[in-house]
Amino acid sequence: RFPLPNPDVTYGYAVVASWLDVDIHPANTPEVVATNISTTASNINFNTSDYCGNLVADISLAGFGKQPSTIFIDAEDLFSTSQSFDPSVIVVGGGDNYSTYHIDIPVDNVTSAGEKDFWVIAEYNDEDYSNEYGVPNNANGPLAAYFVGSVVIGTESCNEDPICDVQVITSMPIDGWDAGVPVEFDASGSYDPNDDPLSFEWDFDNDGVFGDSYDSGTDDNPTKIFTTSTQEQVCVKVADGKGGENSCCVDVDISVYQSKNIPLRSGVEARDITVVGSTGDLLILYSDGQVWEYPEPYTFGSTFSGTMFYDTGLTYLQYIEASSNGDSLVNSGTSGPPFASRSYYNNGANYSNHTSSSNYTWNSDGWCPTYVEENPTWDNRHCTWYNYSPPPLTRAICHGWDPDPPYQYLGGDGYFPPGVEGLGPDYIRHEYLVGTEVDSNGYVYCLENGPGTDRSVERRTYRLGSQNGPYWGGWGDDSGFGDTSPKFNDPKDITRDDDSTNTIYVLDELSTGDPAIKKFTWEGTPEGTFGDTTTISSTPLRIEGSQRTFPETNENLMFVLHGNATDGYFISIFTPTELTT
Q1: What would the pLDDT profile of 289-320 be if each residue is shown by its tens digit?
Q2: How far apart are CA 239 and CA 537, in angstroms?
Q3: Per the confidence metrics, is the pTM higher than 0.90?
């Protein structure tokens, strides 16, 4: 066989003679004496320094009925090494005096287009070049017959388009809030017939333009967060970097429901919100004295719509709180007439117009009795009480303040109604209180919004005053955080989330005037700020956390009331995944 590359071939002189009838066979020698080579099925191409294709040939060898031991294909313009075949494996037909062999070999050493020669060598391992006459010759090795075939190499592009495959991993249909519905896609099943590396571009909004960004994952296995509904297709385009590309699509069915800047009743001021702990229903107090109920399932499968729950008939009511069983309290938040405190059953029926006490089921922030024997001037604004023992041993704490000098602090601990005594610590300027909150351990958090350092949160234990032990001062003046320094700017309200962590949230503004929700541990350690002018589009007013795990997402929700007479009034809902540290 010829050494590759660049073989030197020396042709000698040979005579093949036959003493038999030429119709029987042209020679009485085992060596192949003739061939017919067809390469019409070959598909070899060379284009811009790239080549591809296979040498496909049918080779008929005429001999004396003996197959060669090995068939070799040599061609320096097609293959980097000699190709060898077992004739018994590649034989596909023939007759008495010839056999036809089929080869299909991918090329690996093409440097130019045009017609190229290749050698077909039929070798007989058990024969050599010796003769019975003892005539010497220079031929060594096994007997072999050499034939030249040719194949035309075209100039067509060698590249094949990649195969595109895409699946949506997240089960469809899926629904959620516009805060983000994550959907996972997988195009890793795509491949390139030429084994070229692939790139991936996505069209998530079905506008026909590829290159959309995704939120996590990889180019071939991304997760996209959808904030709008779509029942169309998501498509991916795969490309091999050589001009070959393909695209494929998958159907999606995503329903997204509004969670930010949800409009409330038109033309009516919304003043306060509360959440029913057992059901997750939302109650909103309006300036016309009506309380509207918004059922928890509003976030999935329906729009945010409520119905009038009850009508207090009082337009000066400012605050509302609900117990876990759905009973609710409303009060005026004024220091003098007109002031009122009303309680309602969980069916909306009026329970009482309070003067001193309430039912044990209420765990409220924003209500105090309108009259207490020890201090008839006790304001009914922003009082918190907490039941930490079940009936019949119901115990409660209650604290409030007198807005008139000397701004007396009122508190108590015991069977309800407690014996209330004035304590008046210097740590809280009670005329500046704007919100209170009780956690599951009985700690009371008081948020004040006054000038300078009087913007702070103070925490108190449920053992208030000299009667039951020392009170406990909390986070200190000027505590909080938000933008460039650890302080509150214009705090509006305070709340917490679930019973297990008692994380505290304060609705505030940044020094820029932009709204922000500031997050703290129950011990007052700052954890982060979230919310902005996109998610809270207007003036922040009130905040309420849900102590109930929402069943669809296993999360505790956070509700922010915001708005003004010009823009209208809105609710924005936040999930724990948004309340990042």
Answers
A1: 999 998 875 554 456 788 999 999 989 888 78
A2: 42
A3: no
